[in-house]
């Protein structure tokens, strides 16, 4: 490489450019983010272990399995609705829902889908369904960890075994 000297100066032009160039970006370590299904499984294990008798729960697996069109149509035909939360809990006669999302992930939105007959219909997303569930008396929390799920249960007054 040829360095060009400025008249009357002792710094080569290439060295001057290098001094003005930005320093390379510093690397940042970022904690890995667990897949939603792994977080879901960990919350399920915690519920099995920590919930006291008198509270029932189940996972609503609709969004966790890949369905072909025929299977999805069959579920819709028997009344399966989209846009619900991941885990349903019943305690003291009241319904509670846990929606498991990766940190910062938004609720699903309404979308337009093609029908078998060539028409189009709107499939409601969580951003539409959750307010309806809240209005019907269900309490819902969006969580991204076991700790957040247990904190929601504590806030709702759902008793747990001591775990700390």
Write the layout of secondary structure elements.
Layout: H1 13-20, H2 36-50, E1 55-59, H3 69-77, E2 87-91, E3 94-100, E4 111-114, E5 120-123, H4 126-135, E6 139-143, H5 146-156
Parallel strand pairs: 3-6
Antiparallel strand pairs: 1-2, 2-3, 4-5
Model description:
- This protein has a domain at 32-107 and 139-156: 3-Layer(aba) Sandwich (Trna Endonuclease, Chain: A, domain 1).
- The protein has helices at 13-20, 36-50, 69-77, 126-135, 146-156, and strands at residues 55-59, 87-91, 94-100, 111-114, 120-123, 139-143.
- The protein has a four-stranded mixed sheet with strand order 1-2-3-6, sandwiched between helices. It has a two-stranded antiparallel ribbon with strand order 4-5.
- β4 (111-114) and β5 form a beta hairpin.
- The chain is α+β, with helices and mostly antiparallel strands and 164 residues long.
Portion of residues in helices? 25-40%
Q: Tell me what the CATH architecture of one domain is.
A: 3-Layer(aba) Sandwich
The helix-and-strand class reads alpha+beta
Helix count?
5
Q: What is the CATH topology descriptor of one domain?
A: Trna Endonuclease, Chain: A, domain 1
Shape: flat
What is the alpha-carbon Rg in Å? 27 Å
Number of DSSP-assigned strands: 6
Outline the low-pLDDT stretches: 1-6
